[in-house]
Amino acid sequence: MSEEKKESPTTTGKAAKLARPNVLTLVPYRCARDDYDSGVLLDANENAFGPTSLPSNSLNPYDNGMELERYPCPYQLQLKQLLCNYRNSKVVGSYGGIRPEHVFCGVGSDEAIDILIRIFCTPGHTANNGGGDAIMITPPTYGMYNVCANVNDVKIQSVPLTPDMDLRIPEMIEAITPETKLIFICSPGNPTAKSIPLSDIRHLASCPSYQGLIIVDEAYVDFSSEPSATSLVTEFDNIVVLQTLSKAFGLAGIRCGFAIGPPDIIQLMNNVKAPYNVNKLTSDAAMNALKNTDQLEKNVRDIIEQRGLVVKELESLEFVLKVYHSDANFLLFRVKQKANELYKIMADRGVVSRFRGREMHCDECIRVTIGTPEENRQFLDMLKKVYAEIAE
Ligand SMILES: Cc1ncc(COP(=O)(O)O)c(C=O)c1O
């Protein structure tokens, strides 16, 4: 999902008469693929090294053991157990490992973001004149928190990160109101690429003046040297961690994500979700991936190695003012000038990154996903060539 807006939608006809007022004010969001859908695609933080698994043999629909004529298991217990085995093998908190009752399985982690807002935030921002509950976000951050809050008519409290992309914890605590139900912490952040230390998450989760939940979005955690907050889930009753198979596992196309949290919260998420949200083809490929984590770990090592090479080369360019530290599979960097023009010309010539210069603290910044060695070479060559052309 991306964060740039299209023009306003048509609000005429039956739809305009019947729709909820906050929905009528929504503008459709452009995803990365709306702008460019071919070439070297380094714009959506996908995994250029490919999927870590495939669906089981599906050439014969009558003999693949999947019984596609039957509905899938609504709770995906086998899949959840495999996720728990893998996460527990990496880190077991002093309070013990996670179990399937700690896990919600959804259509990407985006589904979990929406469901959490629907469960915990009473709407009313538009319908009730600024009333209702709120979420807190820390810009620059992932755009879906905003999107889901707006769809659900929920207020957004923004406490920007510092220019170094760290949380401003005292300001966040100061901004909490009785209506604040969810605080979204993106770690590693998108577009910042920076991990938030677990000590910050503990600090917020232990804050006596906050009665809501901390949602730690760990879409990129497998690329980070900071440990996962899943180790805190069995210790605290107010932390929910979001993870996905879309990034390190290279499975954005199957749409599979997780929320890992206290069983009472996970139970509510299961009560609210559509009964058969995760389909059999998805869970089949997801389970294969979680049984094949050697491939995942190899791809992650390769991407981190490539990330180091791209950082080094970017840092050597005199027109690159800053390359932000990255714990993710992408880099955020600042050029001297004309970042938007640079991005556009490069994309028109087939190398697609993402202009992030309209985000807080991201003036003249571009975000680029780490690709294969060939793709990274093409990106760096094109960047140098186009910048030289447009520089005064
Ligand atoms: C921070 C963050 N969270 C969640 C997601 C969505 O992940 P999924 O594909 O699991 O819906 C993304 C996707 O780019 C992301 O950047």
From TrEMBL:
It is an enzyme of class 2 (transferase). Pathway: Amino-acid biosynthesis; L-histidine biosynthesis; L-histidine from 5-phospho-alpha-D-ribose 1-diphosphate: step 7/9. GO terms for molecular function: histidinol-phosphate transaminase activity. Transmembrane segments: none annotated. SUPFAM superfamilies: PLP-dependent transferases. GO terms for biological process: L-histidine biosynthetic process. Signal peptide: none annotated. Its EC number is 2.6.1.9. It comes from the Eukaryota. Its cofactor is pyridoxal 5'-phosphate. Residues 63-382 form the Aminotransferase class I/classII large domain. It catalyses: L-histidinol phosphate + 2-oxoglutarate = 3-(imidazol-4-yl)-2-oxopropyl phosphate + L-glutamate. PANTHER family: HISTIDINOL-PHOSPHATE AMINOTRANSFERASE (PTHR42885:SF2), HISTIDINOL-PHOSPHATE AMINOTRANSFERASE-RELATED (PTHR42885). HAMAP family: HisC_aminotrans_2. Belongs to the class-II pyridoxal-phosphate-dependent aminotransferase family. This is histidinol-phosphate transaminase. It comes from Discostella pseudostelligera.
